[in-house]
Design brief:
With about 220 residues, the chain is an alpha+beta fold. It has a single domain, classed as Aminopeptidase (3-Layer(aba) Sandwich), CATH 3.40.630.30. Strands 1, 2, 3, 4, 5, 6, 7, 8 and 9 form a 9-stranded mixed beta sheet that branches. α1 runs antiparallel to α2. The protein is globular and about 50 Å long. The N and C termini lie far apart (about 40 Å). Bound molecules: coenzyme A (COA). The site of coenzyme A (COA) has 17 residues, from α1, β4 and α3. Coenzyme A (COA) binds next to α1, β4 and α3.
Length: about 220
Amino acid sequence: MNNNDYIIRKETEKDYREVENLAREAFWNLSEPGCFEHYFIHIMRKHKDFIPELNYVIELDGKVIASVMYCKAKLRDENGNEKPIVTMGPLCVLPEYQRKGYGKALLEHTFKVAAEMDYDTVINFGNPDNYVARGYKSCRKYNVCFEGDFFPAALLVKVLKDDALDGRKWFYYPSDVDAPCNDTEAVEAFDAQFPPKVKGWQPSQEEFYIHSHSVINRK
Ligand SMILES: CC(C)(COP(=O)(O)OP(=O)(O)OC[C@H]1O[C@@H](n2cnc3c(N)ncnc32)[C@H](O)[C@@H]1OP(=O)(O)O)[C@@H](O)C(=O)NCCC(=O)NCCS
């Protein structure tokens, strides 16, 4: 990766299908046989919680090789006070360009833009391996959970300002933007618009199961 070779820029309408295909390539068979993230991206752009100002891609030699999207979400404390925050994802890099620093560049760029927009907290689900080097911490460390005091191991929090979270308990309310992804027929129908790809098992699916079914019970 050479800093002068690539451009970080906003996604445009012309990129839509290329970005969806890039997501399909990046997520295929990663957490389940096939994937839904290309459909997720497709529907997210039309959702009220989608934040176009934080929708960036990396272009290299005229090709889009990485993409990131964000949505509005909120935290609510035990007294009912609310705080607007953002949920990050999907984040993806074309497989042949992964582990070269492009994901890092895209996150660091969009964290700056989000901070300029006065957001101070970013949350996402994910494999901690991909995020701890970006300063993400376990939700438990910031006392951020779901209703019922549920602290998933894969719920990761990045603060963009040191005093963003003051230790009080915050309940996380994500957008419902991903709800249509449960419609497997709609995902299949959308996937059929892309070149055929073979669904199969790979070890990352077990890793995903472990991460997504784990909770942190002790500080
Ligand atoms: C996850 C993903 C977005 C990361 O982007 P990337 O460009 O591949 O990652 P980067 O090269 O920027 O590295 C990010 C971090 O990954 C880790 N990393 C990088 N290279 C690594 C390697 N060879 N082995 C293990 N970890 C590595 C490091 O923690 C690195 O941060 P650091 O360089 O500051 O230490 C990308 O790999 C991807 O699209 N994967 C498939 C889709 C996916 O999993 N998306 C995220 C959903 S949770």
